[in-house]
Amino acid sequence: MTALTAELIDRLEQVVGAAGLVRDPQDMARYLSDWRNAYRGRAALVVRPASTDEVAAVVRLCHQAGVALVPQGGNTGLCGGSIPDASGEQIVLSLTRMTRVRQVDPQNDTITVEAGVVLQQLQEAAVAAGRMFPLSLGAEGSCTVGGNLATNAGGTAVLRYGNMRELTLGLEVVLPDGQVWNGLRGLRKDNTGYDLKQLFIGSEGTLGVITAAVLKLFPAVRSTTTAWVALPSSEASIELIGIMRGLCGDRLTGFELMSRQSVEFVLRHVAGCSDPFGERHPWYVLIELGDTQPDASLNVLLESGLGEAFERGIALDAVIASSGAQVKALWTMREGISEAQNHEGPSLKHDISVPVSCIPRFIDETDRQLLDRFPGVRIVCYGHVGDGNLHYNISKPVGSEDAPFKAQHEAIMQVIYDATARFNGSISAEHGLGQAKRAAAARYKDPLELALMRSIKQTLDPAGLFNPGKVL
C-alpha cells in the first residue's frame, strides 16, 4: 500500500471537484467510525464521487498509485465493514452523492437506482409508481442501496420476499482496476453463463464498487393485519408458523420471535411501550399478514390460525391490532430491542442462522451452556423465525462491572459459534463479516470454501486494494 501524494490528491480533485473531497479532520470524523462507535479508523482522505464515471476514474487513479479504497454507503453496518484501518493511508470512497433514481418501469416491475439512494427514498419512489419495494430495516432512513447490496441485507420481510439477492436483477459495478461492468439488465431469465451479480452482492466492497442496481418491485400491499401472540416455548413458534403458512401462504409477510428478556428491556427503556398482556410469558411472536386486495379477509385467516394454536396449546394469549397506532406500537416492541439493550450496558451481539427446524434446540442447548459457564448473563434472543435468523445477544449480569464481562467476549462467542456450527448454521445471517467476524469465519467456514473465496478475490483484486482486512 502506498502513501497518498499531493499529486494524487490534485488529480482526484480534478475528477470529483472540491465538493467531492473531504480533508478536514473534523469533517472526516463521521466517515471514520460506525454509528455505534464500536469501530474507529483513520483515513488519508474521503472521496465522494457523484457518478459512475467519477467512481471509475477515482478507482483507476488509486489502482495506479497502489492506494487502498474502503467503499462506504450510509455507514450503518454492525461489523465494521465500511470503516478504514488505523494506518491513516486508506481512502474512504463514499457513494452518498450518487442519489439518482435512473428509471422506474412499472410494467416490468423494476426500478433502477444508484448506490447512494437511501432505502426509505427507494421505498417512496416505488410507492409513487403504485408499487412496493419490500426491504425494511430499522436503519432504512439512513442506510443506502449500495450498503444493502454489499451486505446482502435481509430485514423483517425476508419470509415473503427474500433478501437483497432475491430482490436484485442487475448491477453496475466498478472493478478494482477501474473497468465498469454494466450488468443493469432487468431480466428474470438470463441463462447465459455465470450469474456475476451474485459475486458482488454480499461481498462488502472487497471485489468491486456497486454503483447502481436494477431491483424488483411488487404490487402494493393494500390490506394488513398484525397480531402479538404469547407462547409457552420457542418450539411453539415453529409449530405456529407451520399453521400460519399452511393457511395463509405468501400472505404471511412477517413472523418475528422475541424472548421475555428482550421484551422486558423494551418495556424498561423505550418510551411509550406497554405490555399487551397482563402477565409475563416466556416467548412472543409478532405476526403480520398482507394482501394486494384492499378488503382482504386477513383477520379471518389470522383468527382461524390462532384458534387452532389455542386448541393445540401452542398459544397462551393473543391480541390483534385494531388501528394503525396499535400496529406501530407492536412493531416498536420488536424494533426497539437493539436500542433498549444498549441501555443495559455493554452487550455482545451475534447474528446467526440455523435451519428453522433447529431453532428450539439451538436456543435450549446454547442457553444452558452459557448460563452454566457464565452465571447471571442475560440472553436477549429475537429474530426472524421464517428464515432461521436469530439475533442472539448477551448482556452482562445485573450489577456486574463492564470490564470483566467484556473480557469474556471470545469465550462467549465460541460457545455460540460452536453451537451454530453443530446445527450446520451460519455465524453471520445478515450483517456480513466485515472486520468483526473475519477471524471467526476462517475457523468455521469450510477450508475449500475459503480457498475458493480467496481465488475469486485474487482474480478480481490481485493487488488487494479493495477494502483490505475485511471478509478474508
Automatic annotation (TrEMBL):
GO biological processes: respiratory electron transport chain
Classification via PROSITE patterns: FAD_PCMH (PS51387)
Matches recorded under Gene3D superfamilies: 3.30.465.10, 3.30.70.2190, 3.30.70.2740, Uridine Diphospho-n-acetylenolpyruvylglucosamine Reductase, domain 2, Vanillyl-alcohol Oxidase, Chain A, domain 4
Chain ranges of the FAD-binding PCMH-type domain: 39-220
Keyword hit for Protease: no
A Gene Ontology molecular function term of the record: catalytic activity
Record bears the keyword Flavoprotein: yes
InterPro entries assigned: FAD-bd_oxidored_4_C, FAD-bd_PCMH, FAD-bd_PCMH-like_sf, FAD-bd_PCMH_sub1, FAD-bd_PCMH_sub2, FAD-linked_Oxase-like_C, FAD-oxidored/transferase_4, Oxid_FAD_bind_N
Cofactor(s) demanded: FAD
Keywords, in A-Z order: FAD, Flavoprotein
One of the Pfam families matching this protein, by short name: FAD-oxidase_C
Family: Belongs to the FAD-binding oxidoreductase/transferase type 4 family.
Protein name per its UniProtKB record: Hydroxyacid dehydrogenase
Organism: Stutzerimonas nosocomialis
